[in-house]
Specification:
- About 10% of the residues lie in helices and about 40% in strands.
- It is mainly β.
- Strands 1, 2, 3, 4, 5, 6, 7, 8, 9, 10 and 11 form an eleven-stranded antiparallel beta sheet that branches.
Length: about 170
């Protein structure tokens, strides 16, 4: 798997660049993000990811990370209802149009959850019962970034990479 593909799940908060001004910014520091994939007989846990962030890195990713390479995305719709933010977006990738709904809950200072459902044109999904999220992300703030970490560092499976040095979120594609 190429490194830039590993970063996409961690930046889910940021794959909605046109909605960047409407989304809350995460508290600076070290975040742990746990992802669960549905659509199989049992939910499949994925690796936990830790991401060191600051306001500049969060803004940079929100503004410039535009989804998978080669995709065309319409401006997302952002709606706030009570304590939830719902973002609906439509993207075309490799000739297939996919509609995605991401529902964010939490306070972005200590913990938040994102439930994501995507449906390609024609309605075929890999998800469970209709309306169930295909991926759920649970993020919690662990505290300040650890010694030796800098904003943009992502640690996954014992591997550390920095999104800034990879050109992710800067408009450059690695």
């Amino acid at each position: 798997m190429r490194p830039h593909l590993l970063v996409i799940p961690t930046g889910l908060l940021c794959v909605l660049p046109a909605a960047a001004d409407e989304m809350p910014k995460r508290k600076a520091g070290l975040w742990e993000i746990r992802m669960m994939m549905a659509g199989r007989e049992m939910p499949m846990p994925m690796r936990n990811i830790q991401q060191c962030t600051d306001a500049e890195t969060d803004s940079m990713m929100s503004t410039n990370l535009g989804g998978p390479m080669g995709s065309e995305c319409a401006k997302p719709s952002v709606n706030r209802t009570g304590g939830a933010i719902t973002v609906d977006s439509t993207c075309k990738f490799a000739g297939v149009t996919t509609t995605t709904r991401a529902v964010f809950t939490g306070d972005f200072d200590s913990a938040y959850t994102v439930a994501v459902s995507s449906v390609p044109a024609g309605g075929a999904t890999d998800s469970g019962p209709s309306g169930q999220p295909q991926m759920t992300m649970e993020a919690k703030w662990l505290g300040p970034c650890r010694e030796g970490q800098k904003p943009g560092d992502i640690i996954m499976g014992g591997v550390k990479m920095n999104i800034r040095s990879m050109g992710i979120g800067t408009g450059a594609r690695p």
